[in-house]
Design a protein that fits this description.
The complex is a heterodimer of chains A (307) and B (202).
Chain A: H1 10-20, E1 37-44, H2 57-70, E2 74-81, H3 92-106, E3 113-119, H4 144-152, E4 158-164, E5 178-179, H5 196-202, H6 204-212, E6 221-224, E7 234-235, E8 240-241, H7 242-253, E9 261-263, H8 264-280, E10 293-294, E11 299-305
Chain B: H1 3-15, H2 17-26, E1 34-50, E2 57-72, E3 75-87, E4 97-99, E5 102-117, E6 120-135, E7 140-156, E8 166-178, E9 181-197
Antiparallel strand pairs in B: 1-2, 1-9, 2-3, 3-5, 5-6, 6-7, 7-8, 8-9
The chains are: A alpha/beta (307), B mainly beta (202).
Chain lengths: 307, 202
């Protein structure tokens, strides 16, 4: 049974949908993969000079782009700065152009979905993304407000942002929620989350007020590798950024309800549990802990289509 | 004990207050019309979420609850209830958008009227609730208000060891105010109720 219904038939549809929705449990939807899903993938491994170079963002970007191509996306831009090839691709101007160029593809299709992925350096504390040409030019570092404006200019309503960089939690908006997971995983409480009731009761007025505002959900569903006060890491053990490695694995292993679709929330939850189990607990003596974060709001978007 | 657990315990104890008040009021007063009941129930149903520019999308919902109510003649002056609920992720629209699943705790207060049809008793209730919830698979906590309406039926069961035991069935309806999203829930509840103080009438 096809349950989604249009707003014009709402009253009768409400009753019918409520009466039949219990059958959803155990049912798997078979939806034709839409063709209006566009991705911009950015990986900055090489920076001017040698001292700031990373090792794996180019691999992160290439592997994710290849995966997205098979998982229901059209990768329209691969901006990679790497030693030996793709030099200078991931500049501020090219990133701006690639994202704004999505508007041409989208046209008037407000149901389109866009995904922007970035792997590279994030500026200390602010988390600003650092393109290839921004190492010594702060004006070319991409702040959360700047990226938000670029994405806001796109006429579609489905927007995904995934960042594998230090302090990237600065780009994640909790919206009508409070994130009970620490933004700094290296305080005395470590990566422990506050409880549901503790968080809710302690912030009840603020949360209720947020829920009563008409604009509750953030416009962009964002996932960050780390909190706003956390570093994120890459490692030769997996030849990727740690977060991106598990994000890639989520395509095969992150489908928690087995319906053939891995949503952004499922991929986030999978990556977070793996980082807790296989990075934070194993490497505590040598490296700082970190945790991915995801933005608030009632909505979710499919990241990988496995059907 | 974690503070959240303490608060939950306090809330559950508070559910017994209507009954305790009845017991106090009724001490030694023959023919009192005030009574109280305590009940437990499970419910299953569907939650339909609606957002501007989005399709209506449905999801299964389950809950378990403990409630207590004051009864006075043809009225239910006050019903308090705590529910632990879970709403699964919704169906997807044609563009692979869905509503996240969420779970949490709800405290509600309702009032209403009651009607006897031979041995069957019907309650018509309306009220409001406050809920604290977490989006499934995340650490994101939110809280919101709801409007409630419920039709409950109670049927007496003759169990000698539990005098006054009633089987309850209900059709609860809830409208949750979650930012730009409105979530409507309709379900079927089944449970049992026991009197805290036996109702006496002249």
């Amino acid at each position: 049974m096809s349950l989604p219904v249009r707003r014009q038939g709402a009253p009768l549809a409400l009753l019918l949908a409520l009466a039949s929705a219990a059958a959803l449990a155990g049912c798997s939807q078979d939806i034709e993969t839409p063709t209006n899903r566009y991705a911009v993938v950015i990986g900055v491994q090489d920076y001017p000079g040698d001292t700031s170079d990373l090792t794996y963002p180019d691999d992160d970007a290439k592997e994710l782009a290849d995966l997205l191509d098979t998982a229901g996306w059209m990768v329209v831009s691969r901006l990679i700065s790497a030693v030996g090839d793709h030099v200078n691709e991931a500049t501020y101007a090219n990133i701006d152009s690639a994202i704004s160029g999505l508007a041409t593809l989208i046209g008037t299709d407000t149901d389109a979905t866009v995904l922007v992925y970035y792997s590279g350096h994030g500026e200390d504390s602010t988390g600003k993304l650092i393109p290839y040409d921004a190492l010594s030019d702060n004006d070319k570092r991409i702040a959360p407000a700047t990226l938000a404006n670029w994405l806001d200019a796109l006429p579609c309503k489905n927007k995904l942002l995934i960042l594998d960089s230090c302090y990237s939690g600065n780009f994640v908006v909790a919206g009508d929620s409070i994130d009970a997971s620490p933004q700094d995983s290296n305080t005395s409480s470590g990566t422990l989350e506050d409880g549901l009731l503790e968080t809710a009761v302690g912030n009840l007025g603020e949360l209720i007020a947020a829920s009563l505002e008409s604009s509750g959900s953030p416009d962009v569903l964002a996932i960050s590798a780390a909190g706003s006060a956390d570093l994120s890491y890459e490692t030769g053990a997996v030849s990727n950024g740690v977060f991106t490695y598990y994000l890639l694995k989520a395509a095969a292993s992150g489908d928690a309800n087995g319906d053939g679709y891995v949503t952004a929330t499922e991929a986030f939850a999978y990556a977070k549990s793996c980082i807790k189990a296989y990075w934070n607990s194993v490497n505590a003596a040598s490296y700082a802990a970190f945790l991915p974060h995801i933005s608030g709001g009632t909505g979710d978007l499919v990241l990988y289509v496995n059907k | 004990m974690r503070r959240g657990t303490s608060l939950l315990a306090i809330a559950i104890v508070a559910l017994g207050l209507p009954g305790l008040a009845v017991a106090q009021a009724g001490q030694g007063r023959a023919g009192a019309a005030l009574a109280g009941r305590f009940d437990a129930s499970v419910a299953a149903g569907a939650a339909l979420s609606d957002d501007p520019d989005r399709d209506l999308l449905a999801a299964p919902a389950l809950s378990f609850g403990l409630g207590s109510e004051l009864l006075w003649r043809a009225w239910v002056p006050l019903r308090l209830e705590w529910r632990l609920f879970s709403v699964s992720p919704s169906a997807m629209d044609d563009y692979l958008f869905s509503y996240r699943g969420f779970w949490g705790h709800r405290l509600s207060a309702e009032t209403g009227a009651r009607l006897r049809l031979d041995r069957l008793e019907l309650e018509f209730l309306a009220g409001a609730a406050v809920s604290a919830s977490k989006y499934a698979d995340t650490s994101l906590v939110s809280a919101y208000l709801s409007a409630l309406a419920e039709l409950r039926a109670l049927y007496p069961l003759r169990v000698k060891s539990m005098p006054g035991l009633h089987l309850t069935a209900g059709l609860p309806f809830e409208c949750m105010l979650r930012g730009s999203t409105r979530t409507y829930s309709l379900g079927l509840s089944l449970g049992a109720s026991l009197p805290l103080w036996k109702e006496k009438t002249r």
